[in-house]
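Reader question, answered in our methods column.
A reader sent in the components of a multi-part assembly and asked whether the whole thing could be modeled at once rather than chain by chain. We filled in our standard form and ran it. Here is what they sent:
COMPLEX SIZE: two components
ENTRIES:
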Amino acid sequence: MNFNLLKEHEMLLKLYNEFTEKEVKPLAEEVDETEEFPVKTLEKLNKYGFMGIPFPKKYGGAGGDILSYALAVETLSKACATTGVIVSAHTSLCAAPIYEFGTTEQKEKYLIPLAKGEKLGAFALTEANAGTDASAQQTVAVKEGDHYIINGSKIFITNAGVADIYIIMAMTDKSQGTRGISAFIVEAETPGFTIGKKEAKMGIRGSSTCELIFENCKIPQENMLGKEGKGFSIAMKTLDGGRIGIAAQALGIAQGALDETVNYVKERRQFGKPISYFQNTQFQLAEMETKIEAARMLVYKAAFLKENKLPYSREAAMAKLYAAETAMEVTTKAVQLHGGYGYTREYPVERMMRDAKITEIYEGTSEVQKMVIAANLLK
Amino acid sequence: MRIIVCIKQVPDTTEVRLDPKTGTLIREGVPSIINPDDKSGLEAALKLKDEKNAHVTVLTMGPPQADVALREALAMGADKAILLTDRAFAGSDTWATSCTLAAAINKLGYDLIIAGRQAIDGDTAQVGPQIAEHLKLPQVSYVENLSVDGEDLILKRVFEDGYHLIKVKTPCLITTLKEMNEARYMSVGGIFDSYREKEVEVWSLKDIEVDHNNLGLSGSPTKVKKSFTKGAKSAGKQYNVEAKEAAKIIVDKLREKYII
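And here is the structure of the entire assembly that came back:
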């Protein structure tokens, strides 16, 4: 057993930290305040190879491993959870399923520009009446000759409106239940496909979250991802991988909040001394640090298992559950240790607390993670 | 165009402290970086690679750990990296260092040699110019801007109170200022390549032809007499007087200290 990072991981961290410090952190407050998608940051992420980290070079990627990708999402999220989720949703939910389930032609046409960062990706499963019960899909795809006609709508879609390529789940055979769901690759410019309402959110406010609307949207048969009826299975496997990304995002948010708090408690003076001198502060920090480290071990282990093609569904669920709950707890404590200042927008911890909440909800709520973990125990 | 960029791995002096007892640097736990002036020189070379298809070799003399600085340069886009490392080079001052580097450069083809103005851990600004002297090359120091004009380079050499625009024929050596540009980041793919596909060539004493009297500590004419931490300044003295009287006090003080 070896807990050491490889030399290349150490150098990646040097890059990720420098990039985050100079390019991401200075914009985090503004991105939250204005709710504007950080287009300029995305251009830089593309340029330096952040958008295709775990894919082979022949498909336009950086040729890295899953841990290298998780480290990137973690580091970016220390300063800006919005930036973290843009990378995570693009990589795990759009590029990854094309890499894992796509045909050679689909990889060449879609994965290469996604991994190179020339195109941005998104993934659409959730509907108004199909959330945790993802099987209750109402979007339908009806075959007509060599095309499918898609009708329906999706909600809460990350990167929507900005993305160029979408993975869409739709019912191709209602009588088959989850086995009647198929996955499609849909280009943003396709006639009949429009972007609906943009959500005003509590956190990750720079991330674009919108409704997708399909009205007689004609998709060529060659854009079906995997076989007909395999969509639900593809979606579940994709979300297993996505959980590593969101767990890494949660881990980053928690670490960022702890770093801010450590600096603050050394400066803030009450009763004639820095509040870091008080045992209550020290014990709170110790608990935050310990939970973050435990979350980190779970995230890195899940990344290791996926990289080595070992079963990782249970571990990814545990990593996501624990890292998300840790992010919520640590950011709440961070605000408490900042006192009144922590509640103001003058300090970043209130933003981090708002950002943390979504990690307990999207890509499977904490309750869904518990269902996955328990199902593994009881099978 | 073949470019050699000489870089030095240095402790990040923004995070370094001195041991008050011994007066030496506390290097423990201090991150190592590519010296900022050198990194700008590297960026200038990489721009010439982007625009003119130049071939960029990075060269450093240092302990085996300096491998990381070279990999970083490779991850930024350099084509080739050479680490000059040997126990015989240990303790080199600027003279021994420039002799050793010049001997290595002699084995490589080049049109342009770039060195940073000075290293943040030594601040001598001597190694670049000395290499030019050893190789009998024209040199332009303190370069803040560079453009290519056929076989020549147009260089902006900056002083505190002005600048020179100099046209120089290649081959030549220039020393660059960190103000010259903002160096690019490594790329994610570049980092994997630097460890998996590219190599750092390791050269030792036997790989270069150099006068052994000019090597390492014994070949270094510089003798460090004493090193010390600059003492804290006193609080100073305040005078609440008229401007004219203040001017007189200042002039008297400066005279007293033989400054004027």
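What stands out: The first helix of chain B runs from residue 36 to 52. Helices of chain B lie at 36-52, 67-76, 94-106, 127-135, 188-196, 243-256.
Send us your own complexes using the same form.
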